[in-house]
Amino acid sequence: MQKLTIRILTLLAVLQVGTTCLAEQNLTVMTHDSFNVSKKVISAFERTHQARVIFLKSGDAGAALIQAILAKDAPMADVFFGVDNTFFSRALKADIFIPYDSPLLAGIADHFRLDPSNRLVPVTYGDVCLNYDRQWFTKKGLAPPSSLEDLVKPAYKGLTVVENPATSSPGLAFLLATIAHFGEKGYLDFWQGMRANDTLVANGWEDAYYGHFTAASKGDRPIVVSYASSPPAAVHFSSTPLAEAPTAAVVDNRSAFRQIEFAGILRGTKHPELAGKFIDFLLDVPFQEDVPLQMFVFPVNPAAKLPEVFSRYAVVARDPAEVSPADIEAHRERWLEEWTTVMLR
Hints:
Blueprint: H1 2-23, E1 25-31, H2 39-49, E2 51-57, H3 61-70, E3 79-84, H4 88-93, E4 97-98, E5 121-133, H5 134-140, E6 160-163, H6 169-182, H7 187-196, E7 200-202, H8 205-211, E8 223-227, H9 230-236, E9 247-250, E10 257-266, H10 272-283, H11 285-295, E11 298-299, H12 308-313, H13 325-344
Helix pairs in contact: 7-13
């Protein structure tokens, strides 16, 4: 009798393990390499939905999207995070996403919601803009730049480092800011002035910021293209407490370009209901409040509270430079070719 009881208990244990394994689903989320989320925040989603989330980091945003498009007939993931407005039209044209009307979208401002069909929903945003080394300008007795026009003045010769828009996301965003600011008839004149004023071109943000920017390296460039959220990052990661941010962002006079990041459910997912729950999770307060110190961008959900370092040191452009996703898609390659001819040839 005792042996029979042990066998029955063992069988019940096996069945229970099997049922648990069947209940747990794997959800694969394709992202760019800069994506990050706190372990406790993602673990809460997994516990709530009896799921395991697998993040598939796939290069920068453009490279990741191209991979997702190429794999549309055999999708590599269930959800994609990281399409921004510079690749927005390309993503929708590829028809790799399915609509999802998250109930949390009702609280998101209309200017973030660029897709009426909700195939792509906004999750984060940030302003790409000039950053400058405050101490450098104070020591030199030179006023820091307050507009794009300042960069081509003789006093600022040899002071700026930008990223190549063909190889860098912030580089492309800054190029778009100049197109919006000066117009198609004037932006190349600005860049010709930038070349004449000894502007340095770096391949990517890391090289520009940590390789040439005086506030973060032994470089000799006190002006860099970065983000409006870079000053709070400089304070947050400082090895010693700081009373003020060592850098400042230039966001006035339509000098900043707003990047909005979107997420969507990939067509062909085997877990559409769970994927929808993950979209809800991305828009809900716990993830939105986690965003600033994980990826140093802003949450789109107005109910999310910003960390103190953001509240004190981050700025948001009141009137960002704007180029529509459709215009970006239609003219991106020509604009890149024209910029390359002016700056690198």
